[in-house]
Amino acid sequence: MIEQKQILRKGTQREYFLDWIKVSVVLLLVPYHTAVSFSHIGHAYIYIEPKIDSWFYILMSDFLNLWFMRILFFISGISVYLGLRKRTPKEFIVERFKRLILPIIFLVLTIGPLSGYVLATTRYGFTGSFFAFYPQFFLKLHQYLFWAQLWYCGYLFVFSLIGLPLCVFLKERIGIVEKINGFLAKKYNILLPGVVIVIFEMSLRPFFPGYQSLIGDWANEAVYVSLFIFGYIMGQSKDIFHVMARHSKLYGTIGAISSLVYLYVKRFCSFIPEGYGKEVLVAMLWGIAAYALILFILGFAKTHFYKNSPLLAYLSNSSFALYVFHYAIITFINFFLLKSNMNHYLVWGLTTISTYLVFTLLFECVLKRSSFFCYICSIRK
């Protein structure tokens, strides 16, 4: 981001590897959301029938879904630490509202109903005009995932509010944070927070499989807020990131093996009967894979993507706008291409490339030239 300000280390040096991770995750949202039309892992999308059990779409959807939003919540915790260093709690809340809630309001009133209309006509048999559909969108917000991809902003705003007292408490007692980070930086202690993630996954995921409506989404909320707090604490110690970099191969190996087992058990394993036992196993594998991959990506990026560049500056400036608009662009392109007889891989490729091209034109010709969109999408002129 998804949030535009660049991450700073204590002092003046920017941690560019965190910016590279953020813009990379936003860029991956395009192939990810395109693949969902074929893998069917979400419900608020237009689908091709029948579902295609292809390893390609599984990697583009299920594998990315393992970790990429989770790592954003971790990095967002670091952003909160940096934000509170230069803002009072009141100023921080106002800033959060402007950056996170105003874009949601804009999307729900404009882009959301447009995407919902396409979904209604293709999956729910609606035959009226967009203007006839518009009030229905607000009567069935849950069905059309009213805030669409901006659910992340809503969750982050809530976490920022409920976590603010803890963050202020730790800010005023830096010794506690230093002791925690000193402990985590020893040997393999940094793996211990992953136990918390695994416990939440195993105990909650079978009962709350995940729908980003905030209310009742207990498994996601427990995992996301934990990673948010971990980011707030660990982001205050550069030694933690050195540990991640030093052992990144180990974390990558754990993440790769557990991810492959997770995908196999979830998608293809037939000898384990469906039921609570399998759901707990899948949840456990998800927790292990997600945390290990987060550590690996942070460590790998710390080692290899630590420099600034004009490309990073451009992507950082445009990434939140891409986050806001990409889903609607994908929906409309898919709406037309899925009607063709083209090979589904070709449809995926054309939709993905076309989305990037259409957004770039939109950004260059409209968004960055409009004071309104610059404000909503945090674009620097």
UniProtKB/TrEMBL annotation:
Domain Acyltransferase: 16-359
InterPro entries per the UniProt record, alphabetical: Acyl_transf_3_dom, Glucan_succinyl_AcylTrfase
Keywords for this protein: Membrane, Transmembrane, Transmembrane helix
Pfam families named in the record: Acyl_transf_3
Domain of life: Bacteria
Keyword Transmembrane: yes
TM ranges: 20-46, 66-84, 104-126, 146-170, 190-208, 214-235, 247-265, 280-300, 320-338, 344-363
Gene Ontology molecular function: acyltransferase activity, transferring groups other than amino-acyl groups
PANTHER family tied to this protein: BLR4337 PROTEIN, GLUCANS BIOSYNTHESIS PROTEIN C
Protein's UniProt name: Acyltransferase 3 domain-containing protein
Origin organism lineage: Bacteria, Pseudomonadati, Spirochaetota, Spirochaetia, Spirochaetales
